[in-house]
Amino acid sequence: MIKVTLKDNVIKEYENEITVASIAEGISAGLLRNACAALVDGELKDLRYKITKDANVTILTFDDELGKHAFWHTTSHILAQAVKRLYPSAKLAIGPSINDGFYYDIETEKPLVPEDLATIESEMKKIVKEELDIKYFELSRDDAIKLMKEQNEPYKVELISDLPEDATISFYSQGEFTDLCADPHLMNTKAVKAFKLLSIAGAYWRGNEKNKMLTRIYGTSFTKASELEQYITRMEEAKKRDHRKLGKELGLFSFLDEGTLIFRFFLPKGMIIKNELVNYWREIHRRAGYQEISTPIMLNKDLWERSGHWDHYKENIYTTGIEEQEFAIKPMNCPGGMLIFGLETRSYRDLPIRFGELGIVHRHEKSGALHGLMRVRCFTQDDAHIFMTPEQIKDEIIGVITLIDEVYSLLGFKYTVELSTRPESSMGSDEDWEHATNSLREALIEKILSLK
Question: Looking at domain 2-61, which of 3.30.300.30, 3.40.50.2300, 3.10.20.30, 3.40.50.1580 is its CATH number?
Fold first, then answer.
């Protein structure tokens, strides 16, 4: 006898193993119709997943965040199937779900353009009307590579080749279409009735600009046409408030050819706003006990090697040569702040020392990630460098959170806080990391409780 604990601690008993879909059907036909995926003992599973022992099961619908992602991922496969029908020589890369929908990266002989989206949407509607059952199967690594070679899918072959030799590779098929995939999917294409292809962009394979540029098709989908219409209306309203559009209309900033359309030019009206923000920044930092510093925009390569940035970040650093010496245009303010601290011999009685800097930094971000003023290659970074004793960490972190909360509350920004622990590539002793992490944790707990 298998005991399955559902939401609200309802327990169902089954004599034999049973799929998640069958559990949903046993509860109601409506739940099965709306089910997208499930959590089984806290792990995301497909509706086809078999329960073979006692388990906690939560059926996920489109109302659940993880349910949405299964729905969107299924839609990305419908998109890919439509493209393959229309452009048989197309080669598929990846097609994940994202925050508000999905995308698929595809190579075609002739690059796709926005005008092609309507044709692809029409083919997707045909696939939905065909009500194709979506089937799951697994292959060994060698057989998976063989299948993808037969289908002339080199990007899939590359992905599979990177997996361990003993790995079991999962696929989903619907009608004549088969795709490499590990994520949960719906049971049938008929559930995806309301969808919209939104835009086309370029994307390098695996995010590497040395690789081939693929076409990325973005889209979204919903369970009801009314929900899709509401989403499109919200997006249209958001476009009207897009900071790039407003910046141009209000004469605040501009991106010009001479700056390769990447580096922004602040106009007189934009400078008024920027300077008011800087004045506010200086006011609250003085009140919080910070001393303002300014460090050079260029520092020699030796410094970045000592700091570790050269080994871990050099592909994002702009460099230049001066008098046979290599320099880096700073991507971060930290090393310069450390140099200023090291100019004097300090006593523990001097601590904490709080430095604040509005430093201009440059980072060679991927072109596909750039977005107006939100993601750029040159920006002014508001940096704090606090030098303290181990015993002062908790109180200083609470001070930083208080400062951040004041600014975000004033500007109407909502935020979440997460505790980041030691990464694999890090410097320092285990003891120092453990003490710092525990101090951060204690500061977060105390601050969060005080805000309630």
Answer: 3.10.20.30
